[in-house]
């Protein structure tokens, strides 16, 4: 059975070089290889690999179906890798060589499941692969790529710095905007509070004015009511006085009418008798009779006599009586 040399002894040897051994190691075999592939932009790249290989127990009856499993493994994987690299540009491959090689050898990773590649021919299972390096064989192109990568890194760093500066400016603007919003909110709140305070003060002032108006109206109403009562009292007093005056006038009228009727009853004979009695005696008796009436009216006896005997036959006698004292004085 042919067996692949250990990694530190076989580097640089062709895959056809065999090491004869009397046994087959079925667990944790390490097979190293260097693969040269060409990218789609016609640049040769060298890929240094190290495979981890087991032989599955369930396929032990086929372990020796392949005479040289190392050549079989390396030739197959070289073919797969060259096909994958041919689809990529050198820059893209160099930047992502490890992921590209592992996906090509082990398959694309799905979830958290373990990836591996099994050869049905001899039960050989590649459960891992290490990419020890990926280099460009043309030094000039490698230098250009390194310069491009350095330029890209420098540009990326500059862009990162500028992006950081931009983010800082954006954050500063956002903070300033938030501060402005807070200031605006504060100013608006102050205006609202001031407006509320002014409204409250206006309402208090209006309430006080309304109360003062109500008190003034109440006082004026009370005064009007009082005046109405006074007017009522005055009207009642006037009515009472008018009644009293009318009553007094009525009494006086009745007295005058009564006295006039009495005077009308005096016969001419009585008048003649009175003339016969003499003026002095008649005047004395007449004054005695009229004195109570003059005292009641608070006027002189002469005035009362003129009022009583006006438009009567006694008016002539009264005139004669008043003229005699005047003559006696002459």
List the helices and strands and how they pair.
Blueprint: E1 2-3, H1 7-10, E2 19-20, E3 29-38, E4 44-55, H2 69-86, H3 90-95, H4 97-106, E5 117-119, E6 124-136, H5 139-264, H6 268-277, H7 279-297, H8 301-308, H9 314-329
Antiparallel strand pairs: 1-2, 3-4, 4-6, 5-6
Helix pairs in contact: 2-4, 6-7, 7-8
Overall description:
- By secondary structure, the protein is α+β, with helices and mostly antiparallel strands.
- Among the domains are: 2-137, Band 7 domain (Tetrahydropterin Synthase, Chain A, 2-Layer Sandwich); 266-329, no CATH class.
- Helix content is 66%, strand content 13%.
- The protein has nine helices and six strands; from the N terminus they run βαβββαααββααααα.
- It has a four-stranded antiparallel sheet with strand order 3-4-6-5. A two-stranded antiparallel ribbon has the order 1-2.
- The longest helix has 126 residues, at 139-264.
- Mean pLDDT is 79; it is low at 1-13.
The CATH architecture of the domain at 2-137 can be given as: 2-Layer Sandwich
The CATH superfamily of the domain at 2-137 appears as Band 7 domain
DSSP strand tally = 6
Multimerization state: single chain
The proportion of residues in beta strands is 5-15%
| Number of continuous helical runs | 9
State the shape: rod-shaped
Helix content: 55-70%
Q: What is the residue-averaged pLDDT? A: 79
| Low-confidence region ranges | 1-13
CA gyration radius, whole angstroms: 77 Å
Query: How far is the first residue's CA from the last residue's CA?
Result: 208 Å
Give the SSE string: EHEEEHHHEEHHHHH
Strand order of the largest sheet: 3-4-6-5
Class by SSE composition: alpha+beta
- As for the CATH topology of the domain at 2-137, it is Tetrahydropterin Synthase, Chain A
CATH class of the domain at 2-137: Alpha Beta
Largest sheet: 4 strands, antiparallel
């Amino acid at each position: 059975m042919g067996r692949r040399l250990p990694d530190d002894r076989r580097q640089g040897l062709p895959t056809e070089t065999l090491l004869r051994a009397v046994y087959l190691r079925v667990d944790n075999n390490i097979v190293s290889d260097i693969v040269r592939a060409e990218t789609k932009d016609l640049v040769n790249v060298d890929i240094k690999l190290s495979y981890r290989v087991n032989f599955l127990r369930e396929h032990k009856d086929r372990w020796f179906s392949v005479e040289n499993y190392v050549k079989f493994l390396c030739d197959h994987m070289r073919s797969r890798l060259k096909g994958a690299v041919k689809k990529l540009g050198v820059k893209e491959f160099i930047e992502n060589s490890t992921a590209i090689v592992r996906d090509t050898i082990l398959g694309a990773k799905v979830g958290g499941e373990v990836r591996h590649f099994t050869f049905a021919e001899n039960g050989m299972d590649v459960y891992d692969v290490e990419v020890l390096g990926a280099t460009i064989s043309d030094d000039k192109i490698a230098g250009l790529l390194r310069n491009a990568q350095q330029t890209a890194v420098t540009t990326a760093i500059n862009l990162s710095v500028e992006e950081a500066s931009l983010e800082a400016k954006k954050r500063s603007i956002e903070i300033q905007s938030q501060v402005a919003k807070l200031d605006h909110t504060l100013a608006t709140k102050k205006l609202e509070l001031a407006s509320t305070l002014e409204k409250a003060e206006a309402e208090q002032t209006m309430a006080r004015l309304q109360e003062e108006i109500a008190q003034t109206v109440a006082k004026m109403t009370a005064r009007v009511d009082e005046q109405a009562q006074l007017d009522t009292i005055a009207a009642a007093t006037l009515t009472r006085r008018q009644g009293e005056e009318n009553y007094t006038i009525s009494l006086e009228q009745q007295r005058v009418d009564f006295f006039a009727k009495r005077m009308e009853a005096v016969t001419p004979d009585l008048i003649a008798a009175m003339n016969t009695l003499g003026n002095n005696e008649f005047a004395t008796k007449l004054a005695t009779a009229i004195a109570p009436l003059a005292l009641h009216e608070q006027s002189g006896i002469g005035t009362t006599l003129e009022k009583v005997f006006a438009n009567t036959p006694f008016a002539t006698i009264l005139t004669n009586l008043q003229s005699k004292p005047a003559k006696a004085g002459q």
